[in-house]
Amino acid sequence: MDYNNVKKAGIIHKIVCHEVKPRIKHNATYLSIAEFVENRVKELLNDPSGSSGMAFPCGISVNDCVAHDTPSKNDPRVFVNGDVVKIDFGVHVKGSIVDAAFTSIVGDPLSIEDSNAVNASKAALKMAISKAKPGCHLLELGKSIQIFVENFVENYAENDNGVKPPPKPPKPPKVVWDICGHQIGLWRVHLPGGKAVPNVGNVWNPDPSHPSNAKGYDYKMEAGEYYAIEVYTSTGAGRALPKDGYTYKDVSHFEFYQDPRHGPLKQYKTLPFCRRWLDSNQSIKLRKAISTKKVEMSPELYDSPGSRVAQFEHTIYITADGCQVMA
Question: Which segments of the protein form a coiled coil according to its record (predicted)?
Fold first, then answer.
């Protein structure tokens, strides 16, 4: 990826984040937020050629929805007070990508557990970034994130919130362990074969017998790499799973395995896109591409019903002796 293009994309991402936050309020529609983000990115990029734009659709995942939700064209859903809202979007300049996210609580939090989940995610991300540098073991970084989050209430909540914990200690948040940060490449939000940053210690799965508990997963960061580091925390089970029996109609995010180069969907190359962006002809072509297994579907992911999930994410660049936050 081109450093200067990543830097430009990051500046635009930060501007749009700042502008959209006050719009996330009671009775605002999911669709109005998504369209504001996507239109504002396009406006700031000011690229008539279309070689720069959204790196993926604006994700709006609320409460127990962990990721991959974005509104449909006529989506009627609105925010209500107490909602825990995750806004996750990417910007690219000629294929050089930033991917970052934040969480807002609409109105007042419904519980101190909700507040702790949000604050723990934000603070754990800051801690993780402070450790990112060449030679950093990614599984050790995941372990640090897990320990930080699981001890957040006892060690950090009083200082961060400015209030004393209640007489009955609140339930500590959990990390969402089966979703992780990722290495970014040119035209690739998730670099194929790239490294990943887990939210848990030395395994992807808490079960030590799981196949992912292997030394081969203990990669190190190297100078010149770009990562999206994201920390998900939850008041629930700490899972990120699709609904049973989901179909095409339940999925909003799609991504070509290889650059299509030709046809009505070629503009998206290998970047994720959503049905809301497509006209009728493109929708037909998408169904055909799915049937021929040229497109990956990314369904919405959920934790346990009624749980509240928070997410904060930054894109970083690994320098010679540390890292730089790009978005």
Answer: none
